[in-house]
Amino acid sequence: MKRLFVTLAILAATVTHALGAGTITLSMSQQLDTQGRPLAGGLLYFFQAGTTNPQNAFLDSALTLPHPNPITLAADGRVPQFYLADGQIKIRLATAAGVTIVAADNLLVIGPSSGAGSPPSVDPTTVIATGDVKSKYGTGVLTGFVRLNGRTIGSATSGGTERANTDTQALFEYLWTADPNLAVSGGRGASAARTRRSPSPTGAGTTRSSGTPC
What we know:
The chain is mainly β. The chain contains one helix and twelve strands.
């Protein structure tokens, strides 16, 4: 049987993102000289994008253990694993004698935020908000929702039969304002804050939707 659920509260505050670490495709690659031989002892330099200022590469993804700059390639021309701060980077790859093999600027560091620093935050109210209705097959409870079954909601001491928890406060206040005809245990009182519990609607007169709420 298909049951309807209504949200208890706005799901989350604005999420912040920590600056992450990433890398570029040179990491762990094998490099060759102009004769196609492994670039043994080659030198890989890192600079801040668009400048000649050195930029650290790191041994660990927490960016706490810096590599030497330049990094020296192994005897087989292999570049060791390295991590970089999010953003862009400039590099120069040279032979052991310092002859440039390749130089590139503004390379994108690929990591948790794809090198763009902190991505835009998502306003959770554009995804789902208190009072939105969600259709779902089944009879069990759904985290963040209460069923539209006519049972009651309220605080932990309210005796609410559908859910008695402080996380119902936002929904309680929403229903108090949205539907003055909803019956309230002990009467509506002067305000939602002074009322113990209220029934969850049965779904009659609501807008029903399936899938992701609009």
